[in-house]
């Protein structure tokens, strides 16, 4: 993977702005620890930090295509195009020549051959910028599912852009201002498309092309979910899903650097690990990693979201497929390390985190990065196949809001702003913001004529997850992994699989009475029986009461000083939270307000944010 940054300005010569462009690019060093580069022309400046995955020597960036000694187009690119070999062969037949073996050059040459429409030919995860010197126009492109991030900030004479907000904020033209809608976005847990929290900043929407010209900025979608009749019967559907998964995993195993899988012992990550092991047979052993907490398995207590600990199932998979496995075991001191918590916030750029689940993921990836550079993940299978428990809860399905906010559970998502004072909460009116976001999302849902009842509603539920909820998780995975220079690939986000399963009837997705019936049936032959029969369990969260005690001590210390968040707080509310007893088992929901308070305060302080409320 990589980090990109750039600046287009039709009113100045950007060749004189190298220092600023360097500052923007330097913020992306964590995303690209292997190399850096810059390309400057009169009205454009590109920066690039490289994580070398394919063609280590030849794929340096920014990359240009030339003819007759003149630059035709330049590219700064982050991601992987998994069908680049087929595209390369096609371009060779059309007369193109290549200097490298990289997918980067394929993307650049594809643009020269097919123009803007070339993006519809790409299969992969990517975010990139192309400057066409002949037209003096910029294209910003993001992959269909939004696996790789890309932000932009329009200016009076052009635009700033970067893989993360921090790249844009390094330019003096970008203000560090957050208004009421930005704060609402932090609290609501709804992921509004194109919102970037900072005022004036936007995120390129998944499947979108943003074009910048002298005349202004325009946007178009080159991909979005479509509703179609599903005509395959059940056996054909299961067989098609397995064929797709075999092809997807095989494509995503291509790498010139060490590769592994993330293994939780759930159906999704276990299926990826098992399919990878089969694809690698004769070429090597699949390497896998998992996260655990000290004493977690021995002292585990079931809660509303988690019936079982992961580790026993992880080890079942390891034995079944013969993986070379490592458990990464963390304790509460690891999770409370101030340097680690600061790194997590720095990776996020905004306080959208979920406490120890972010911190432990960062530490897991940091440990993996010592031994691997690429990891395959089971992320997004729940959104694609209908795995979350609220998919199967009539109250959540029937609620007039996002399903993940509808039920009382231990996640605490609806209490993210519990520490704020009533005047501010009233002004923000987060419930109204959520309701508006929900209605706008519903208005987008594609329909099949005549679709009614449960099938119609479950199409809506699936769409909400595939366009809103999955973005929250993909953002988290990208930021935590790229903060340590680890590339994470997500096979279940292949758009061919997403399109196919989205249109399968809900009755087919639950044909055996369980969640993710189609995925279970498609991969049961490569999995141990224990995993096939295991109920959905989310990513683990520590249950150690010592962690909650440490959080409370940190909040008490904060209240004893002059916190940056002070004017926003209701100290009485915070004190009442601190006065509640800590149980023998600490659950995630009981810590949400404390985690949020600490992170928002650290963010206001570290980023110099000005609130315009």
From TrEMBL:
GO terms for cellular component: cytosol. ATP binds at residues 262, 291, 377-378. The keyword Nucleotide-binding applies. It is an enzyme of class 6 (ligase). One of its GO terms (biological process) is asparagine biosynthetic process. The keyword ATP-binding applies. The record marks 379 as: Important for beta-aspartyl-AMP intermediate formation. Coiled coil: none annotated. One of its GO terms (molecular function) is ATP binding. Gene3D superfamilies: Glutamine Phosphoribosylpyrophosphate, subunit 1, domain 1 (3.60.20.10), HUPs (3.40.50.620). L-glutamine binds at residue 103. Keywords: Amino-acid biosynthesis, Asparagine biosynthesis, ATP-binding, Glutamine amidotransferase, Ligase, Nucleotide-binding. This is asparagine synthase (glutamine-hydrolyzing).
